[in-house]
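Methods — Computational structure assignment.
A single polypeptide chain was analysed. Its primary sequence is given first, followed by the predicted tertiary structure written as C-alpha cells.
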Amino acid sequence: MKRRSTARTVNGIVSAVILCLFLVHAVLGTFSSPLSFSAVASYVLWLGMALVGVHVVASIATSYEQLTDTVRPPSRKKRQHLLLKWVTGIVLLAVVLLHILRVRELDLASAVYSPLGTAVAIALVAALAVHAWTGSKSLLKDLNIDRKYRSVLRAGVAILAMVLACLLLFNVVL
C-alpha cells in the first residue's frame, strides 16, 4: 500500500482546523454584538487566514502529486473531481474576500448585521459547506479516517450549514 504523503497529512490537519476556526468565528459572530470584537479574535482570524494559505499550498502539492502519479494515474473522473474541489475552493475564497471587504469598508454592524451582510455570510456558509462536502472523501483519507464516515461528515456539514444560516437569518430579523 502506498504511503500517504506529508502534504496530504498536513492538508488534512490544516483543513480540519480551518473548519473548526470557521465554525467558532461563525457562532461567535452570530451571538455577539458588533462592539464585542476583540484583539484576540483578530489574531485568531489572521491565524485562520494563514492556515488558508497553508491549505492552498498543500492543495497545490497534493494536486501535483496526484496528477503526476505514474504508478496510479488519475482517472478522468478523479481529475474532474479534483477540478471541482478547486472550483469550489476558488468560489469560497471569493466569498471570503467579499466578506472581508465588507467588514473593512463598512462598520462591522453594517457589514454583517444588515440584509446584504447576512446574504454574504449565508453565501459564505454555503460555499464552505459545498467545498467541505466536495472534499469530504479526501479529508477523511488525509486524516486516515475510514471513508465509511463520509456520509456522517457530509450530514454534519449540511446540518451545521443550515443551523448557521438560520441563526444568521434570525439575527437580521431581531
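Note: The CA atoms of residues 30 and 171 lie 7 Å apart.
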